[in-house]
Each structure stands twice: as C-alpha cells, then as structure tokens.
C-alpha cells in the first residue's frame, strides 16, 4: 500500500452518557462544534451512546505526550457544549490517526486476493469501511465460486481486482475531503465559497450520497460490462429495482426479489423484456428456441426471465404459448421505462449475479447474448 498520512486525529468514546441535548436517543446527530470538528453522536445498543470528535492541531499541542482516557472524556464534554454531558460508565475508547491508502493490486499470482481493510484504508467519517469490505465480498464471491466450479476463464476473477480497486480509489477521493471537513478544515477546492466547513460537509454528503449508500457504484467496461446494443441506458451500473407482478396472484413484487428465486444466488439472469405483446408476439415466438439453447449450454449458471409489458390472464393469453423461464408482468411499464427499454421493441438484458447490468441486446439478438457469455465462459 502507498499510504497518505493526514494531520487528522480522531477520538471515539462508547459510554453510558447523560446529556440535556434534545432528542439524544433518536439515532444519529452531527453537532457543529467550535474546536472539535463536526462531532458525531450515535445511539448504540442498550444504554450506550458513541461520541466522536476531531483533535485539531491546537488540541494536539495541548497533549504533547498523547491524550489519556480521562483527558479524552474531558474533551468529549467540551466538544458538546453548550449541552451538558456526564459520562457515567466508559465501555471503550480509541484515538486514531487518519490515513488513506489503496493496495497497488488486489490480486497476485491468480489466487491471492485482497479485500476489506487489507485492500483499502481511510477514515471512518462516512462509515464506509465495513460497507466497502462487504461490497468487495459481494463482487468476489460469485466470481471465485464460478472459477472454482470451472465455469469461468481467469479473466472473470481479474475483474474483481480492477472493479474493486477502482471503487476503493473513488472512495479514498471522497474520504480525503470528508475527513478534512469533519476535522473542521475546508479543502482548497471548496474555499472562497463563504461557507463554513460544516456547511460544505452537509452539501458534500448530499452530493456523494449515491456512492456512500453503495447504490451509485459503477464499474468500467470489461469482458463483463459491455456496451449495450439496445436502447438500455448503461452497463456496469446497479440494475434498477421496480415493482412487477406475478401471474395469477397479481400482487406487486420487487424485481430484485424475483432475481433471487430458484436458488439463484450466484447465478446470472437473462431477462427478456418482451415489450407490448400486440407488437412483439411474433418476435418473441422466434426466440424460444435460441433461449432454450442458451439455458442448456449454461445449465445451473444462468436463468431466464420474461417480463411482459401490460397485464393478461397469463403467458398463453398474451404470448400465444409458454413463456421462456420465469414470467412476470410489467403492468404499468415501470420496469421497461427504468431500464430505458421501448415497449414497442423490447430487449434482452443480462444481469450479473451481483445485480450489476452486464450487457443488453435487441429482442432478436439472442446470438449476441450467447456471444457475450462465450467470451468468458469455459
Ligand atoms: C472507530 C471506527 C468506526 C468505524 N465505523 C464504521 C461504520 O460505521 N461503518 C463501516 O462500514 N465501517 C466502519 N469502520 C470500519 C470497519 O470497522 C472496518 O472497515 C472493518 O472492520 C474491516 O473489516 P475487515 O474484515 O476487512 O478487517 P478486520 O476487521 O481488521 O479483520 C481482520 C481480522 O484478521 C485478523 N488477523 C490479522 N492478521 C492475522 C493473521 N496473520 N492470521 C489470522 N488472522 C489475522 C485480525 O485479528 C482481524 O480479526 C469503523 C472503523 C473504526 C476504527
């Protein structure tokens, strides 16, 4: 790892705390302090709370030999003023320096793979450490599983290293600004706006919220993320979640839940957006045979789903025959629209096992979908 050290040092204290701050048990609060940065206040399990604050250079000067537990508690009390704070029981505390780093490579000699804090380090400011580690695991598990099963060529495992290192670098970029702002400093690019560090931090949090929640992560083009050949928006991004309806019961269901059916963990979904059957029925009939061939070639690795625009009694009523794979109605067209697919043309969409969009082609292009898989399947 190439590590960038910062001047920032933070304290965290978990304790039974009595305070006159309003709504102290509501969940999470951020307190704009004069000398202790943007103070973190969190309701923890049982009767405990966590308080976190920054030791700025002036405070660090006060403690040339390092800060003791009692001094940390005193500074915590100071950081929350004008509210009163009484620490009745101290459960845990820590004092740490903020560093930012990403491993130069997340993969070595084919099967040595790094993830979690071993791959990337940063501040705890936007609460991303464990979250990013879980994203690493989610990205890696199905690729490693598929390689072990003999499904994939080595190029698939290599995308773990490139995709997750890219995301970690983006995280570090965000963290550099976040850590500075939480510590009470305004990074150069935000200076001259006439706003305080707390005000810039609040806006910065909003501007980066998609990434921080893990929903806005995107991956570069690769053997897995290829340019869509249909009207669909993009590949390498998380697939949209919308409501669809199962035939018969006709109850709304999250599209994401349908992707987890049939013991589908670790499997690909090829979704046939069948469009409006009045316009697409004949073309749909043509894809039954190549779809069955695709499913046969990749048995156990992928599943097929048909999503039809509108509603009908069932697949036979709408398509004049059986549906390919699992079957759902996109009654109000929200799924077609969220994926950017025209109901008059339909499309074929490949969704990776981690729900990232891999590829898309026209309704008549099942051979292109087969070609997509042939690039990385053994
Ligand atoms: C104060 C603080 C607050 C945080 N808050 C958040 C938050 O709100 N949200 C969030 O997402 N993240 C948060 N994080 C970050 C999060 O805790 C870490 O990113 C996460 O725990 C890293 O998990 P990991 O499994 O990669 O590494 P670790 O949790 O460090 O696990 C590595 C394990 O490997 C063991 N080990 C090391 N060497 C060896 C060896 N040679 N042999 C065998 N075992 C070994 C270690 O003992 C350890 O158990 C916070 C971190 C801090 C410090």
From TrEMBL:
GO terms for molecular function: FAD binding; oxidoreductase activity, acting on paired donors, with incorporation or reduction of molecular oxygen, NAD(P)H as one donor, and incorporation of one atom of oxygen. Transmembrane segments: none annotated. It holds the Pfam family FAD_binding_3. Belongs to the PheA/TfdB FAD monooxygenase family. Keywords: FAD, Flavoprotein, Oxidoreductase. It comes from the Eukaryota. The keyword S-adenosyl-L-methionine does not apply. Residues 329-377 form the Phenol hydroxylase-like C-terminal dimerisation domain. InterPro entries: FAD-bd (IPR002938), FAD/NAD-bd_sf (IPR036188), Phe_hydrox_C_dim_dom (IPR012941), PHOX_C_sf (IPR038220), RIFMO-like (IPR050641), Thioredoxin-like_sf (IPR036249). This is Pentachlorophenol 4-monooxygenase. Residues 62-173 form the FAD-binding domain.
């Amino acid at each position: 790892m190439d590590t960038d050290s910062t001047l920032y040092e933070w304290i965290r204290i978990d304790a039974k705390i009595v305070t006159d701050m309003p709504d102290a048990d509501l969940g999470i609060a951020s307190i704009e302090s004069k000398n202790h940065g943007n103070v973190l206040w969190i309701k923890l399990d049982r009767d405990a709370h966590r308080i976190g604050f920054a030791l700025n250079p002036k405070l660090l000067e006060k403690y040339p030999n390092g800060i003791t537990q009692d001094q940390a508690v005193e500074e915590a009390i100071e950081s929350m003023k004008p509210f009163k704070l009484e620490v009745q029981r101290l459960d845990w505390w820590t004092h740490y320096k903020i560093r930012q780093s990403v491993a130069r490579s997340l993969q070595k000699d084919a099967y040595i793979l790094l993830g979690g804090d071993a791959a990337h380090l940063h501040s705890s400011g936007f609460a991303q450490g464990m979250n990013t580690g879980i994203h690493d695991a989610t990205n890696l598990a199905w690729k490693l599983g598929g390689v072990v099963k003999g499904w994939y060529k080595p190029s698939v495992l290599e995308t773990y290293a490139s995709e997750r290192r890219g995301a970690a670098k983006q995280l570090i970029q965000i963290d550099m600004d976040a850590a500075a702002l939480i510590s009470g400093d305004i990074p150069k690019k935000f200076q001259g706006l006439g706003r305080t560090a707390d005000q810039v931090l609040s806006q910065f949090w909003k501007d980066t919220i998609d990434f921080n929640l893990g929903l806005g992560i995107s991956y570069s083009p690769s053997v897995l993320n290829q340019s869509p050949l249909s009207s669909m928006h993009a590949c390498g991004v998380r697939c949209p979640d919308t409501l669809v309806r199962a035939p018969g019961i006709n109850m709304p269901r999250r599209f994401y839940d349908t992707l987890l059916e049939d013991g589908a963990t670790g499997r690909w979904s090829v979704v046939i957006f069948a469009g409006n059957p009045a316009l697409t029925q004949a073309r749909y009939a043509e894809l039954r045979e190549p779809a069955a061939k695709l499913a046969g070639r990749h048995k156990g690795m992928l599943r097929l789903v048909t999503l039809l625009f509108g509603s009908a009694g069932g697949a036979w009523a709408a398509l004049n025959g059986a549906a390919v794979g699992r079957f759902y109605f996109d009654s109000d067209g929200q799924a077609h629209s969220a994926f950017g697919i025209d109901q008059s043309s339909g499309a074929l969409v490949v969704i990776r096992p981690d729900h990232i969009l891999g590829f898309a082609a026209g309704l008549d292009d099942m051979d292109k979908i087969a070609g997509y898989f042939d690039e990385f399947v053994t």
